[in-house]
Write a sequence for this structure.
């Protein structure tokens, strides 16, 4: 089956080559149409993409690149634009600073080919830096719970790297048609728009998880999407509440349940930040819990500890290491 690959980009010329090379090098023999949506870049993105667009300009070839430029409107508009400009029955999403193992689509096509009830396939991943060097201790989330009918599981936390996802276009179209805006990616969501789509598609079919490192997620200084964690997680909570409002009855989740789910999610992230000694993030997420009306005694206790001076924990941690 043919595949559309949607690559939104904005001022990521330094990383775009790795992303494109990884798609072109896919071992699968099907036709791959690659839509690169340039969301108002002001760097040399156009110069980077030109030789690729010239080389892969034949729509009938095994690889075809469509370079689409638009005024800067954000990743939501870019992804929706890419979907509108492509037509293959399977759609893969790749952020322009990430890249794939050459076998990724082959493995995913093997998984999805013979089961019409499968709506999406995603994979394990590894973190890399600007130089594509690993920054982790091995493959991530090998026991990812998002498999099968997993909407209720996914609601607890977005544990899917979107650059690893392959979806049926029919599921995307159905998910879009069920919304008032009629789009795959909801306008107004500057974060968590991928999570929103994943949840809606999870209501329409099964997910398959491939526990192999087939996706590489790049962390770098220009990676601004998650720079403000309070804002990012605020959108995460907004998507959770909106989903329960629309689909909660179908999966047996009510308003009380979603408050508990959001509380658990925010506390785990705030507590993790505290133990990393990122005290500001811990405080911010406790405040977000207050804004979400899920602030409980555990948050109050954590906020009190996170309010102490950082130097106090520096001394305490050093002493702890010295004393074994």
């Amino acid at each position: 089956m043919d595949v559309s690959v949607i690559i939104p980009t904005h001022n990521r010329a330094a990383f775009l080559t790795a992303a494109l090379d990884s798609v072109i090098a896919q071992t699968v023999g099907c036709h791959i149409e690659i839509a690169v949506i340039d969301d108002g870049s002001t760097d040399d993105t156009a110069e980077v993409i030109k030789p690729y667009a010239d080389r892969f300009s034949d729509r009938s070839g095994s690889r075809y690149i469509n370079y689409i430029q638009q005024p800067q409107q954000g990743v939501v508009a870019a992804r929706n634009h890419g979907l509108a400009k492509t037509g293959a029955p399977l759609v893969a999403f790749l952020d322009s600073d990430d890249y794939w193992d050459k076998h990724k689509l082959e493995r995913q096509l093997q998984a999805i080919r013979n089961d019409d009830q499968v709506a999406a396939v995603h994979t394990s991943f590894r973190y890399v830096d600007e130089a594509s060097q690993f920054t982790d201790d091995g493959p991530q989330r090998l026991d990812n719970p998002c498999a099968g009918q997993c909407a209720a599981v996914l609601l607890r936390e977005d544990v899917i790297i979107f650059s690893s996802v392959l979806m049926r276009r029919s599921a995307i179209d159905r998910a879009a048609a069920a919304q008032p805006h009629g789009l795959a990616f909801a306008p107004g969501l500057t974060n968590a728009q991928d999570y929103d789509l994943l949840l809606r598609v999870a209501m329409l079919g099964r997910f398959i998880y491939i526990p192999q490192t087939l996706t590489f997620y790049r962390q770098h200084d220009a990676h601004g999407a998650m720079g403000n964690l309070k804002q990012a997680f605020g959108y995460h909570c907004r998507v959770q509440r909106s989903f329960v409002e629309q689909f909660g009855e179908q999966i047996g989740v009510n308003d009380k349940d979603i408050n508990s789910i959001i509380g658990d999610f925010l506390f785990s992230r705030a507590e993790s930040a505290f133990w990393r000694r990122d005290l500001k993030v811990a405080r911010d997420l406790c405040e977000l819990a207050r804004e979400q009306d899920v602030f409980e005694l555990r948050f109050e206790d954590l906020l009190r500890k996170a309010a102490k001076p950082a130097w106090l924990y520096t001394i305490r941690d050093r002493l702890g290491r010295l004393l074994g």
User: Anything to note?
Assistant: Strands lie at 3-9, 32-39, 63-70, 90-93, 99-100, 118-128, 166-168, 206-218. The chain is about 45% helix and 15% strand. The chain has two domains: 3-218, 229-322. The mean pLDDT is 95.
